[in-house]
Amino acid sequence: MPETPDIYDELGVPAVINAAGTKTRIGGSLIREEAVEAMADAATGFARISDLQARASDLVAEVTGADAGYVASGAAAAMTLGAAAAIAGDDSGAMARLPDTEGVASDIVMARTHRTGYDHALRAAGADIVDVGTNDYHLGTGATNVEPWEYADAIDDETAAVAYVQKPYTQPPLETVVEIAHDHDVPVIVDAAAELPPASNLERFVDLGADLVVFSGGKAIRGPQSTGILAGRDDLVESAALQHLDMHAADEAYEPPESLVDVSDLDGVPRQGIGRPMKVGKEELAGVIKALELFLEEDHDARVAEWRERAERVADRLAESEGVDCSITGAEKTAVAPEVVADLSDADSSAADLVAALRREEPRVYVGADGLHESTFTVNPMCLTDEEADYVVERIRANL
Fold this sequence. Notes:
By secondary structure, the chain is α/β, with parallel strands linked by helices. It folds into two domains: about 5-30 and about 300-400, Aspartate Aminotransferase, domain 1; about 35-295, Aspartate Aminotransferase, domain 2, CATH 3.40.640.10. The protein has helices at about 5-10, 35-40, 50-65, 75-90, 90-95, 120-125, 150-155, 175-185, 200-205, 235-240, 280-295, 300-320, 350-360, 385-400; strands at about 15-20, 70, 105-110, 130, 160-165, 190, 210-215, 230, 325-330, 340-345, 365, 375-380. A seven-stranded mixed sheet has the order 2-8-7-6-5-3-4, sandwiched between helices. It has a three-stranded antiparallel sheet with strand order 9-10-12. Strands 1-11 form a two-stranded parallel sheet. Strand 5, helix 8 and strand 6 (about 190) form a beta-alpha-beta unit. The longest helix has 19 residues, at about 300-320. The model has no long low-confidence stretch (mean pLDDT about 95).
């Protein structure tokens, strides 16, 4: 059995062998050792949070090509800040009133097929989602889910932004949506939380014209799980910062970093903003800065090759079990790594019963459960060692 952290035994909490990927519900990914060291070092002293945010902003701007960047307590928090920035802009009064949006444009246009539970993060800022399109593509009629003109038709004086969820299968192309939105002077917010690797995606969405892009700091970047990165236009990032930072300061003593906030844009010190509950500490900021620097240095092709080799070994061994049919995906749907898809349609065990049994073990074994309705489960190699992968195969076969 693979070793698991002693702290979980001390706490009386079952550890997890993670064959499901970078799922938040089981802790995201494994934070880099160097990031842990940076966090521990930051914990021994003090720094002004706005100075750390300014340093993070410079790094995010450098690696994404955006004007500026910001760090919040997860990708969903970054989405809320992005929505709040699009709604309130540089209006201190609007910032103070959110999520009350009376008197300001607060609609966010979104394709119906882009809607997920995560768009609650947009609504938390006071946004009303205006969805467009249909599900016709899935009827097999040849029609698309969303026609570009539907975006244009939905944008009006009440529109604050257009939201776009980036996945390999989303339609229409981002550049098409950006062109339409910009024709109407409306910003586009892209949810790319899990779209790393490849590292080129850090720049891709900004290059395509997105005004704000959200990435998770705790998935492939392997920073603290409680970090999300917002990259984009300097005015929108500034608004996000003004709605997130601690504003308990006298006007005479209010001197935020000039690279992050231009005080000449303000009538005075803003009130505490809607983003205040989404704060990050000095430790998380130091950790995500270090993790992002290291992510850029990684050989991502070698990492993907490692994942594929591990996936192939798992698939070969699982396929030896009676009634189990295995295949390996590319980077599609919500995954950025090749995954083993195990089909139990012809097995004596159901996929649902197997997944439930694995999760009741100690340590718990988590495999991907998104395809239970099709009698499939997945094994994602991203968060596994070779030893853990062998253990996962052993436990799956023992439970079949």
